[in-house]
Amino acid sequence: MGAIREAFDFSDFPLVERIGFGIFCLFLLAFPWLGMDSFGMAVMIQFLLFSLFGMGWNTIGGYGGQVELGKAQYVGIGAYTVAVLMVRWDIPYWFSMPLGVLIALGYSFLIGYPLFRLKGHYFAIATIATSLVLQDIFINWNFVGAAKGIELPIKGNTFLYMQFTNDTYYYYFILAYFLAGVLYMNWFRKSKLGYQLRMIKIDEEAAESLGIDARWCKIKAYAIASAFVAVGGSFIAVYNLYIDPESVMHLELSIMIALMAMLGGAASLWGPIIGAAILVPLDRYLGSWLGGHKELMGVDFMIYAAIIMFIAAFEPRGIWGIVERYRGRRT
Amino acid sequence: MVLADAFIQGILMGFLFALISLGLTIIFGVMDIVNFAHGEFLMLGMYTAYCLSISLGVDPLVTLPLCGAVGALLGLVSYYGLVRYLLRGPMVAQLLGTFGLMLFLRYLAVFLWGIDYRMIKKGLLVGKSLTIGPFHLDMTKVVCALLSLVAFTVVSWIIFKTRVGKALRATSINREAASYMGIKTERMNALAWAMGGITVGIAGGLLANFYYIYPMVGLLFVMIAFATVALGGFGSIKGAFFAGILIGILETVFPIIGHLLKTSIIGPHYKMTIVYLAYFLVVVFRPRGLFGWEQ
Amino acid sequence: MAFLEVRNLTKDFGGIVANNDVSFSIEEGEIVGLIGPNGAGKTTLFNCIVGYYRPDGGRVIFRGRDITGWKPFQTAREGIGRTFQLMRAAGELTALEHVMVGAFLHQEDRVEAEKEAREVLAFMGLEGVADLYLTELPLAIQKQVGLARALAIKPVLLMLDEVASGLNPTETEEMVKLLKRIHREKGITLFLIEHVMEVVMPISERVIVLDGGMKIAEGPPEEIAHDEKVIKAYLGEKYARGL
Amino acid sequence: MKKGLFLSLLVLAVAMGLLMGPFAGGVAAKAKEIKIGVIYPLSGAFAAAGRDLRNGAELALDVLNNRYAELGISIAKWEGIPSLKGAKIKLIFADHRGEPGRGADLAKRLIMDEKVVGLMGCYHSSVTKTVSAVAERYGVPMINGSSTSPVLTKRGFKWFWRTTPHDETFTKDLFEFLKGLTEGKVRGVKAVPKEEIKRIAYACENTEWGSSVAKVIEQMAKEYGFDVVKGILYSAKSPDLTTESQALVAAKPDCMLFASYISDAILFVRTLKSMKASPKVVWGQDAGFEIPDFRATLGKDVHGILTRTVFIPKVVKVKKAAGKINALFKKRYGTDLTGASGRAFVALQTWAHVLNAAGSTDPKAIQKAANELFIPAKELIMPWGGVKFDKTGQNVLGTGLIGQYQAKGGKVELEIVYPFDLATADMVYPFTTWK
User: Fold this and answer.
1) Each residue of D259-272: pLDDT tens digit?
2) What is the pLDDT of residue A177?
3) For D48-113, where are the E strands, in sequence order?
4) CA dist list (Å): D399 to B172, D163, D329, D372, D419
5) Of A76-80, B59-63, C50-54, which has the strongest mean pLDDT?
6) Could you say which of C154, C177, C199 is where a domain stops?
7) Which residues contact residue C143 at a Cβ distance below 8 angstroms, ignoring those fewer than 6 apart?
8) Do A195 and C93 touch (CB under 8 A)?
9) What is the pLDDT of residue C1?
């Protein structure tokens, strides 16, 4: 009960932010009726999906301060569990998704244990390495379709398998995950683990002196992050209806996830959402408009890169860091 | 026989990996920063060799010093224009920043040269191979290996035998203490970037002799360079050298073992897997890599 | 049975012996100081007790339990709190939140933890800075927050690492008063590491002196102040400095 | 505090603006224009192929919308779609960068926002999968010109047609060719004993396309009685292919078969050459082996390499239309038509014929027209029997070509060696270029 109350309790945010977030939620709920085109819808879905990924990454990467660059493997685990179970045994989404999350949790504990012996750059490179190893395994593993990937059978409109012919359903589906994610993160940041992680990030030695098992805390946060990402992965499977290791387990996906959260502002509730709200539309729209112009090839990415460099150099706490600096409080 | 051949090819590749990783480890050693744009430096080194050898009509080997110069310039510009500011932030911001630099340089190349594949067609080394007994070795790779040895020797000499090197090492061990000793740490950082740029620029110039050139080429090598530097121990010159060779050997010998055992489970499709796995196993037991410093 | 007993503790770092066969014990309710010149192995000894280093020989027994080689978080859970020479300040957590993290050791619930943390801050007279970030506080206050944080885990033994370093005389005096109050009102055993003798002497009931990794003297402060070996060790250092 | 308030609002406004901005201005639809959405890899690692595809499609568009009577094919005379009162086709290009998810999003944009009548693309079989699934879901016809994964037309889709033959056909061609080699059917080569070319090794890139080619090779080799002594799946993004090349050489194969994209194809040739590999037959499955960059980059090192393709400029000797269109293409873009650009041309041409037959942009009418479509061979620049779709949407009249790079003087030409009756030169056998 207490946890639920905490999750819905946004009272430590300034009023203006609460109102802003309220308006934003209304906007999200009403979005399909605002007469947007379907590419807009598709971009919104990507935005919500990447916000979810970013929020997940934020537990270990933001609050825990561990530079984690291997989240794509969990996108893959979530997506593949749903896809393989549906293709092989016709198992509905609502059974395979929790199973996928469980597998992601189990796997994250398994590799988290050795992984968190490492610190700093060794850790960052190791997370990349584990993700690439898993991708290689999937590329060569015939049971899961190997490099060819898996196509999910089209089932028409069904809530059991979460397949729809209309994107509006998918939109509300991912919006539900997104809102659940926001509430969870709002609880998480105020939870014991949330505080302990931030202490570890500031000073691991000091954290240990306060009776915190730093490694175990990091593993737990890593597992939570992995579960989040696996949920997002399961959505990708039923949304795209085709997955292959290249598209769901790629290194660049891992980096994108971390990038959005960092750019928006790590270790803050709104950061990953802001990061995704800026980078996803920028990527999709710039890509879809400039991508077609031969003479401007590359310019879209240069703009994109310049923004990233600027933020990193002058506001290392991300875009939300600017706001936090002015209001003098972190949330 | 096949194994011996694989071994030799692996060592040759290893020298190349080591050379590419050298700059990364120098920069890291001095200022604890991983340069994501390292692969893009390499790519620009390759383009330099390509453009110069085409426009001046000279042998691509002649352009090597210029490739090094371009690399150094690139290092300095990156340092003074960006990295200097990144140092104030946490590690996350540093990764973000150099990642931005990587994207920027890559697409700058796209903008300047387009996405075509280019290849140097004429040159002293291009397409030549060296036959020693039953082994056929790519001439460029042999030269590459030699230059790699030279580069490592020179860099080690600079770092361990000269005054500048002493200052560099002092900076890398303790920045504050070094600045009390009157060492201009800012300048040392810039020097590290310049040195890193030179080595990777030269590596790029050499690579251009047998590798195709296109804007995304950096990504292919940078992952290996990361694994090499991390395996050897961040900041360790010796580590980069041996880890590079180890990775080269692992990568070529491992699949051949599969071939000899007549099994398809072990094969080239897992050659990168084995490299990453090796890295993972090594650091789990030696969290600072093979030759990394204890803190 | 002693409260904390260190038996024949030895630690060497690849040939350099930092602690050599050190033995001593602390009784419950005592205030004990550990002094010694630079490089005497004080911090190493400290770290061996709380678990940052694993001793190469000897035992550490706390309240009848062998805690040799335990991890720092385990010794903390056992009731050993500690403070640090330097607080790593970051604009990440407020003073209150720092103390809350300590309180979370016994508390699952945030509201309860916050209540406890506020009580500790009130005890220390730090209510005023509760909502400020550490980066916004002067060093002396930062150190007090560090102390409050350690108190929040409800330790029975508090180990203080150079609690006065970087403080001016007035601040030092205040800190000493505070420590005495903690000892008196909370009944916590204190174990101080100090480089500067002047700080330890007035509050310690007993002083242990380390030099070159070995215990060279132990006794009441007034005795120690006149111990020849101690004077020599410190003089030696002063001479060395002069050179 | 006030500043904080202002800034939070600003950030929110910017974020919202970014999300909303693009929706504000809709493109007013012009009358008498038929929009076709074209999804190609225009940037990223496969941009070279994307440019080639785009050139092919744009040339076909120009030929269709303007008058080029001298070309001698029907679309050149139409100036639009005759049955739709000369309505012009407009192509809307989108860039999928090789990412299936992005492709699907773009397909939605094209279908829902641009209101395209149909889709074309996408080169990568993996992207074609997601894009065609979107098309199927929305009931929008899609004509695919260059994705060759066999499975694409085995999914029971009702809105998907493919003009190009797929990998099974192509690989079958190869084995037919090898069989022909043993029977002395190849121009300029005496019958080769089967033992001499029996050992096969292949290296296929490890994504959707390459791995399905590998599967077909294994299967066909068994059927035709060849031994696969080594099969490798490798990553096209590998920084070096020494290991892979070595494994190939170590197996001592008579025939080396490849399914590679451009960068890896170039690297294979370079590496194998440095190892002085000596297979008797080297064959590449299109893609990397037939993109102009391959030949331009490697020069004489490709002498004797075979590539399966669907278009070779030498086709002009047997196809008049092809010659004229190739000349036009070369004038405009500086290179000969390739399998990629040629097939993109045919795909758009097929769209024109389908629309003309349908006489309407109604999806049902298009579906019917496509199912009943027949384009005779003389209309095509491809050496095919024509375009006619079976129940699955696969063009049954498509055939493949096998060409061989031959260095003549300073130039490297691609000569046809299969089908045997179309051969334009004697085959170079055995392959000795790398020795």
Assistant:
1) 888 878 888 888 88
2) 94
3) 88-95
4) 65, 10, 22, 20, 9
5) A76-80
6) C154
7) C83, C87, C163, C166, C167, C175
8) yes
9) 65
Q: How many CB atoms lie within 10 A of CB C134?
A: 22
Contact at CB, D23 and A37, closer than 8 angstroms? yes
Q: Name the amino acid, one letter, at A64.
A: G
Percent of all residues in chain D with a pLDDT value above 70, rounded to a whole number: 93
User: Mapping DSSP to helix (H, G, I), strand (E, B) and coil, where does residue B129 land?
Assistant: strand
Q: Please report whether residue D333 resides in a domain.
A: yes
Contacting subunits of A (3+ beta carbon pairs below 8 A):
B, C, D
Q: What's the pLDDT score for residue D30? A: 41
Contact in structure between D431 and D282 (CB atoms under 8 Å): yes
Q: What HEC string does D280-342 produce?
A: CEEEEECHHHCCHHHHHHHHHHHCCCEEEECCCHHHHHCCHHHHHHHHHHHHHHCCCCCHHHH
Which residue range is the domain that position D281 belongs to? 168-309+400-422
Give, for C8, the enclosing helix (H) or strand (E).
Answer: strand C4-13
| Chain A residues touching D19 at Cβ < 8 A | 40, 43-44, 47, 277, 281
- Least Cα distance to D345 among D284, D387, D308, D306 occurs for D387
Please state, in angstroms and rounded to a whole number, the distance separating the CA atoms of residues C215 and C19. 9
Sheet of C57-62: strands edge to edge? C16-26, C4-13, C57-62, C65-66
Question: pLDDT tens-digit profile of D194-228?
Answer: 888 888 999 988 877 888 888 889 888 898 888 88
* pLDDT (tens digit per residue) in A36-86: 777 788 889 999 999 999 999 999 988 988 888 889 999 999 999 999 999
On the question of pLDDT at C235 being above 70, the answer is no
Distance between alpha carbon A270 and the CA centroid of its chain, in Å? Answer: 13
CATH number at A219 reads 1.10.3470
Q: For residue D204, is the peptide bond before it cis, meaning its omega torsion is within 30 degrees of 0?
A: no
Which of these, C111, C149, C4, lies nearest to A208 by C-alpha position? C149
CATH 1.10.150 fits domain B2-285: no
State how far residue C109 is from chain A, nearest Cα, in angstroms. 7
Contacts of B85 in chain A (CB under 8 A): 313-314
CB contact B180 to A (< 8 Å): no
User: Which regions in chain A score pLDDT beneath 50?
Assistant: none
Which tokens belong to A240? 């795209």
* Residues 6 or more apart in contact with residue A226 via CB below 8 angstroms: A56, A71, A74, A77, A104, A105, A107, A108
- CA nearest to B292, candidates B250, B221, B242, B245: B242
Chain A residues with CB-CB distance to B35 below 8 A: none
Domain count, chain D: 2
Contact yes or no for B2 and D262 at CB 8 A: no
Sequence-ordered alpha helix ranges (H) in D373-423: none
Q: How far is CA C46 from the centre of its chain?
A: 8
Torsion sign over Cα B256, B261, B264, B266? negative
Looking at the structure, tell me whether residues C122 and C215 fall in a common domain: no
Residue B219 is predicted with a pLDDT of 81
* C166 and C199 fall within a common domain: yes
Tell me which residue range forms the domain holding A103: 2-327
D191 touches chain A (CB under 8 A): no
ω into residue D41 within 30 of 0, thus cis?
no
Amino acid letter, residue C59 = R
Global model pTM greater than 0.90: no
Q: Which residue has the tokens 């942009």?
A: D361
